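In response to the reviewer comment on reproducibility (Comment 2.3), we provide here a single inverse folding case reported in full, input and output, so that an independent group could reproduce the run without further information from us. The C-alpha cells appear first.
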C-alpha cells in the first residue's frame, strides 16, 4: 500500500508527508458530550433549536510533527478549496530544505513513478518534472483530481496519493479532525456557523502550541497483521510457515485406532 509506505518511510527518504481532508458539515445544534453529572441528573441541553446553516473545516496535517493547519468555511467548492491548499502548500514548501536537483531526468521520473507503482489508474505526469519534495495524502473526490490542480501540484514537486473507495481510514487527517471536533463542539450549542468556525480555529491554534506526532499503526494495523497470521500454519524445526495445512502422517497404531 503506497500510503502506508509513505507514512512509514517517506520522511526518512527526505519527503515531507502531509495529509488533507475536509470535515463536516457541522450544524448549529446541541452536541452531546460526556460529563461528570450525578447519576440520574444528566446534563441538559435545549431540545429546540433553529437550523441556521452549517460550517465545514479544511485541514492540512503533518503527522511527523503533529502540526495542523485549519480553516473554517461555509462550503468547499474548488474555488475555495484549491486557493487555500495552494497558499498553504506553498508556505510548507518554502519551509522545507532547498531542493538540490542531483538526479538525471530519467532517474527523477523514476523517483516519481516509484510512488505510483501498482495503481490501476494513473494521471499523466508532465514532461518536465521538478524534484519530488512532498507527498500529499487526500481522498479521491473529483475536486482533488481536476487537471489544473493536479498540474499545479506536480509543477511544485507535490505528488497526490489518493485513498481508495472505502479507504478513508488511510488518511490520518481523519484522526486529527475527530480530536479537534471533540474539543471544539462536544457539549456546545453553537447558534451561528461562525461560532463553529471560531471554535475549530481556536482549538487548532491551541493544539499547535503542544502538537502530538502521529505514527502509522494502531489497532487496525494489528488486526490486519493478526488476520494475516491466522492464515499461516507454523512448522516445526525452523521459523518457516505455510499458508496451507499439511496433512499429518499417521503411524500404523494411529491408523488402527481411527479404523
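Designed residues, in position order:
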Amino acid at each position: 500500500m503506497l500510503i502506508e509506505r509513505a507514512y512509514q518511510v517517506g520522511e526518512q527518504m527526505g519527503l515531507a508527508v502531509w495529509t488533507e481532508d475536509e470535515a463536516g458539515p457541522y450544524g448549529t445544534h446541541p452536541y452531546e458530550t460526556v460529563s461528570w453529572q450525578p447519576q440520574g441528573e444528566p446534563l441538559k441541553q435545549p431540545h429546540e433549536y433553529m437550523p441556521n446553516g452549517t460550517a465545514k473545516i479544511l485541514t492540512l496535517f503533518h503527522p511527523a510533527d503533529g502540526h495542523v493547519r485549519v480553516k473554517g468555511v461555509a462550503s468547499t467548492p474548488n474555488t475555495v478549496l484549491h486557493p487555500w491548499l495552494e497558499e498553504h502548500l506553498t508556505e510548507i514548501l518554502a519551509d522545507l530544505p532547498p531542493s538540490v536537483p542531483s538526479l538525471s531526468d530519467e532517474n527523477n521520473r523514476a523517483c516519481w513513478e516509484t510512488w505510483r507503482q501498482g495503481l490501476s489508474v494513473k494521471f499523466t505526469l508532465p514532461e518536465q518534472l521538478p524534484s519530488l519534495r512532498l507527498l500529499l495524502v487526500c481522498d479521491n473526490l473529483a475536486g482533488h483530481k481536476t487537471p489544473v490542480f493536479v498540474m499545479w501540484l506536480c509543477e511544485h514537486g507535490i505528488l497526490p496519493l489518493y485513498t481508495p473507495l472505502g479507504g478513508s481510514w488511510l488518511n490520518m487527517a481523519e484522526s486529527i479532525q475527530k480530536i479537534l471536533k471533540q474539543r471544539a463542539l462536544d457539549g456546545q450549542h453553537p447558534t451561528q456557523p461562525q461560532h463553529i468556525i471560531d471554535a475549530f480555529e481556536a482549538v487548532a491554534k491551541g493544539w499547535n502550541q503542544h502538537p502530538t506526532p502521529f505514527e502509522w499503526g494502531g489497532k487496525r494495523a494489528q488486526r490486519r497483521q493478526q488476520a494475516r497470521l491466522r492464515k499461516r500454519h507454523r512448522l516445526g524445526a525452523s521459523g518457516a510457515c505455510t499458508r496451507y495445512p499439511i496433512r499429518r502422517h499417521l503411524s500404523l497404531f494411529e491408523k488402527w485406532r481411527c479404523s
